[in-house]
Structures are given as C-alpha cells and as structure tokens.
C-alpha cells in the first residue's frame, strides 16, 4: 500500500526535526538535562502526594476506636460496652479484650519489648473494647462524635481513635498539595520555557531552509510541524530521564524506610507511581512540550526568514 501525501509530509517533517536536533547536540543534551530537572521536581511532588493519599486511605481502613476501661471494670460490663459499640452505624465489629488478651496482643505486635510484661504478676494493661470501623465511614467528625459518646460512660477511662495521627496526615497532605503544586507549576514553566527557547534558536538557525520550503509552497502549519517533533522529542527524553531518576531515588528512600517496624505504621507501605501514571506523565510532557515548541515559532514568508 502506497503512502499518502500526509504521511510523506509527516516523515519529511520528522527528518527535519532530527536534523535540527543533531546540528547542535550539546545544546540538545543540555536542554534535555535542564528540562529533566524541572520534570524531576514534578514527579517527586507527585510521588509524595500519591503516597500520602495512600497512607490516608490505608489509615482509614485500619483505624480502630480503642476504649480503655477503668481498672476493676467487670468482664460482663466490658462485653456490654462492646455490644453497644457494635450497634453504631460506623462500626464493622467490636470486641472486648480482658487484660490478659490485651497483653497477649501487645506481645505479638511488639515482640522486642513485649517480654517485659512477664515481669508483672498480673497484666498491667487495662481492659479494652476495640471497635473496627466500616471502610468509607471514617469521617473524622463522625468518629469524634462516636468516641465522645463512649467517653461519657462511667466505666471508660479514655478513648483513642488515632485523632492526632489523622490530623497530622491531613495537615501534611494539604501542605504537600499546596507547596508541591506551586513548585511543580514553577518547575513546569521553567522546563517548558527552556524547551521553547531552544526550539526558537533552532528556528533562527534554519531560517534560510524554511524560506526555501515556503517558496516551494510549504504552508506555515507545515513549517511548524518539525518544531513540534523537536519539542516532543525533548519532552519525551526529559520525562524518561526524570522518571528514572525519581524511581531510583524513591527506591533508595523506601529501602531506608523499610527498617521502620511495620507495627509502627500499620503496614501503610510506600510505592512509586503506577505504570498508568508514568505513561500519562510521559505522554503529557511530550505533547505539551511539542505544542509549546510549535507555538513558540511563527513561520512566515519573505524577509521574515532572512537574517
């Protein structure tokens, strides 16, 4: 099957773009490195935000309302409070843990220090009622109201539902989105400005060639296409370099965080961006860089092309 005229024109424009990049290899490499630094800042902010979102989601899944009863509270009363908590619309299940069961669970969760409990003749832990919340029903205000109701019971010593951790995660997430979003926007502007500036230099170096093409009937739209391909190539190469650097950096950071005992962060886990996010970033970076490069040049005819 023979190629269509449009396909031949695109191939010719792509060759012109590659020739333009090859004429100034050092400039091209420096542009890719500069743009990749900007894209690296964007990927880093995105990775941090994605992990914070995952931490919040995971926290909502594992959060429990722990009701610590006063010393001397009977097992029967503890079971009644557990039954009362289980009837709340927020609660998936609730159970009563007498001091011995609470001590055994502590030993399993913290094996390094759990053995210290054996020094006491009686378990030093308070009887506890634990309520696991339903997924998706972890609105902080509703959980606070539920905990406040339990706190009013005369047998209850204190109630813990991870309020400080949840509020800290919310504040950190909001700060990352504000600061990271502003820095990512600034980095994007710097990176795209770099691409546009270099493409305009390429445009100036090839003014004579473009004038000849315009004399033979090339339209202004066609004359912009090589610069679109140049911008796409720079954007794609820069995004790949930025993603590789961010992936290796994230891998090192996550390996360092692996020394934290899982019991301290409830198995939240850490991860890099998904493949879908990586491919989306590469596609957007390439297309936007190409469009910015194409818009940055304004081909014309006649003396406008002659230096």
Helices and strands, with pairings:
Layout: H1 5-23, H2 25-62, E1 64-69, H3 75-86, E2 91-97, H4 99-109, H5 111-114, E3 128-133, H6 140-151, E4 156-160, H7 163-205, H8 207-215, H9 220-257, H10 262-265, H11 275-296
Antiparallel strand pairs: 1-3, 1-4, 2-3
If you had to describe this structure to a student in words, what would you say it looks like?
The protein has 307 residues and is α+β, with helices and mostly antiparallel strands. It has eleven helices and four strands, in the order ααβαβααβαβααααα. The protein has a four-stranded antiparallel beta sheet, sandwiched between helices. Helix 2 runs antiparallel to helix 7 and helix 2 packs across helix 9. It is rod-shaped.
